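[Q] Does anyone have a clean structure-token version of this?
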Amino acid sequence: MLFNSLIFLVFLAVVLLVYPRLRHRPQNVFLLVASYVFYGYWDWRFLLLLWVSSGVDFWAAARMGRTDDPSVRKRLLLVSLATNLGLLGFFKYFNFFVDSMGVLIASFGMEPHVPLLRVLLPVGISFYTFQTMSYTIDVYRRRLEPARDLIDFSLFVAFFPQLVAGPIERATRLLPQVQQPRTVTRRQVETGLNLILMGFFKKLFVADTLAPYVTQVWDDPGAFTAGQLLTGVYAFCFQIYGDFSGYSDIARGVSHLLGFELMENFHAPNLSRSPAEYWKRWHVSLSTWLMDYLYIPLGGNRKGRLRGYVNLMVTMFLGGLWHGASWTFVAWGVFNGFYLVLYRLTDGRKVDLHWPRAPRAFAWDVVKVVVTFHLLGIAKILFRSPDFPTAWQVLTGIAAGHGLFTFGAAHVFVVCAIMLSLDIVQEATGSHTWLADSRRLWLRFSVGTALLGITLAAAAYRVYSNPPFIYFQF
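[A] Here you go.
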């Protein structure tokens, strides 16, 4: 069920009509059933995997809570990890590894006979797998008491606003909200509506407006000048940001209307002054998950600088693979790992998200933003490309410089500038809900009306098309 669909709006209206009339326990049961309806709308068979993950992890954590034997606890953790990673590996990566093995065999001049299966990728499996694994890991580390109620735990795993594309919540944060009685305040309604409006604006006006030009460029890179290809890269950077952060905003907004608070997943990433800062601003729920459950357990930088660089590269390699079963995603992850290592070698200062006030320092930071944006844009060419030849064609087309200042597609720059302006306002105010936070009623009314009008116009323009969110494929 897509957020940008009529059926979801009807579904949400029913949920918001029934939910406030129930007490805490019936609320959780109702939300769990609603979440299963939401997820099963794609394909009811997907629910079976969700139930397996929920059941195994609930059982494993409960057993951990009843024993102090380290070997038993470790075996229970391994059961949880093997089940979750086994399901993720089979449904998302089986054909990828089989196909890669076939290419390797063929490179030795042998005839590969490797079977490919018609495996349907369950929506959101990468997201909820990481979320539920973090629960059993935290219970194993004794950072969290096991959940005692299967309904509560199942709702933590399947909570529909963030089920299919995050944010990837931690049990230490979301599970207590599930377990405790909730009352929806006026403030939550205001911020929730603010986030939902902003999310739909980012998706319908920003991402879906830029998408056709991006598709044209990547469908036939050779037909475009260097300037037009560069415009396509700019468009994709803002398309994927608008698409993904728009989803996160809607998810957080809907959660507010239900009395929940989800983590902020984006902090104006296009204003990053270094690759390290970017990963503190972009997809924060994933980057912190990789830090806490992969990079630090590998040793982090505690065992020397060289080991720290290796751990960083391994983490980003796997982060790229998490995004998709393709070598271009892996290469994108490696590219970002290289950027992070290079940053540590050349600078390495602790990332500070605050901007300086001194004019000279501020101007230098603006230069760093421009350089960082273009470096990350080069990596995003790999992210968008279906294969290496396409990525190479886009990259070499830009590097050749033919028609570098023949941009075209003026609407791309207008949309990107509007999106960047929203980020600047967010950065200046320090709030994602700056519009709802404003005490100036005229500002809230005028800006809110403008955003709503533009969003409705964009929706009406695409009334017969319904582009899915990009991160649904992950």
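[Q] Thanks! Anything notable?
[A] The mean pLDDT is 90.
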